[in-house]
Amino acid sequence: MPVGTQGTVKGLTPSDLRAAGTRILLSNTYHLMLRPGSGLIRSLGGLHRLMAWDGPILTDSGGYQVLSLTGLVSVREEGVEFRSHLDGALEFLSPERSMEVQADLGSDIAVTLDHAVLLPLDAAAQREAGERTLRWTERSLRHARTLATPGGYRQFLFAIVQGGGDAALRREMAERTAHHPCDGFAIGGLSVGETKEETWDLTRAAAGALPPERPRYLMGMGTPRDLLDGIACGIDLFDCVLPTRNARNGMAFTSEGPVNIRNAAHTRSDRPLDPHCACEACALFTRAYLRHLHLAGEILAHRMLTLHNVTFYQTLMAAARRAIERGDLHSYAREFTERYRERDGDPPASA
């Protein structure tokens, strides 16, 4: 899911997103409730109408964004009190309020409020956050069923699984969350300080305890390799800011690894970003031209690199779906990894 934090995937139109193969977008409850306000969005017909996007939208609950407001947030059983990063105004987000905002936005999938924590953390605090998340899940789901969207349709509801950095606690939290009547599950609180090996151990622990017939969404992941590793752990949906944020910093993801368009090696290059990509940036422009645009601060560079990266991620996921249907996901993942290198200029892994 490309991330449209403020109700837009930066630099891309709905037509761009469809051309890139996008099926579903993510938008952010925390940011939209502060600006322009969920009530205003409801009065204008909801987020789909505002964005002119006719596909599905998932909204996260705002819990992770509140967590990131170090020093500006206070968590208690009723909810989370915090200072707005925009103007310092005192705000309060409860499980019920989070679901009300998401109903106002009119997203197709709404996510329950969780108590996210950073790792490492002592065992008692991890347990406390997990138990609170379960209580907030029950409150979120109960209240969500009393709400109406601007379009009058029922939202799908995903419950977040927490559990910190302990695999046994993750498994327990997932098993207990699975008893709630929801449409899918989101695994949260990962990639927040643990090692990559720990991330996948914890993901497998949670995913293995969730019912296979309901979708599983790993929040905030990740690199192309992360996506393939996550799929192998049983994950169905992902979101991450890397494709769009890295594009604005001059990085393009390609079938052979990341390309830093600022590098002098691309000064005279007449190659496309990726000869295996059919996006507009690769079809029309050379690396030399895109490097010139980026160094000159031209908006077209950000737009083209963003379009390419979103296309690359969607193409990767589409190929993974086809590999699953053929029954050879692991072969596909191995071949991709052999071609892919982590940094611009590194040799491929098979070299």
Number of helices: 15
Number of strands: 12
The CATH homologous superfamily name of the largest domain equals: Queuine tRNA-ribosyltransferase-like
**SS-based structural class?**
alpha/beta
Outline type: globular
**What profile does the largest beta sheet have?**
7 strands, parallel
CATH topology annotation of the largest domain? TIM Barrel
- Low-pLDDT stretches are 347-351
Helix fraction by DSSP (H/I, runs of at least 4): 40-55%
Write the topology of this structure.
Elements: H1 14-19, E1 25-28, H2 29-34, H3 38-43, H4 47-51, E2 57-60, H5 63-67, E3 73-76, E4 79-83, E5 90-93, H6 95-105, E6 109-111, H7 123-144, E7 156-161, H8 167-177, E8 184-187, H9 196-208, E9 216-218, H10 224-232, E10 237-238, H11 242-248, E11 251-252, E12 259-260, H12 280-284, H13 287-295, H14 299-326, H15 329-339
Parallel strand pairs: 1-2, 2-6, 6-7, 7-8, 8-9, 9-10
Antiparallel strand pairs: 3-4, 4-5, 11-12
Helix pairs in contact: 6-7, 7-8, 8-9, 10-14, 10-15, 11-14, 13-14, 14-15
Task: Give an overview of the whole structure.
The structure is a single chain. 44% of the residues lie in helices and 12% in strands. It folds into 2 domains: 14-240, TIM Barrel (Alpha-Beta Barrel), CATH 3.20.20; 245-339, no CATH class. A 7-stranded parallel sheet has the order 1-2-6-7-8-9-10. A 3-stranded antiparallel sheet has the order 3-4-5. The chain has a two-stranded antiparallel ribbon with strand order 11-12. The chain is of the alpha/beta class and 351 residues long. The radius of gyration is 21 Å and the shape is globular. The longest helix has 28 residues, at 299-326.
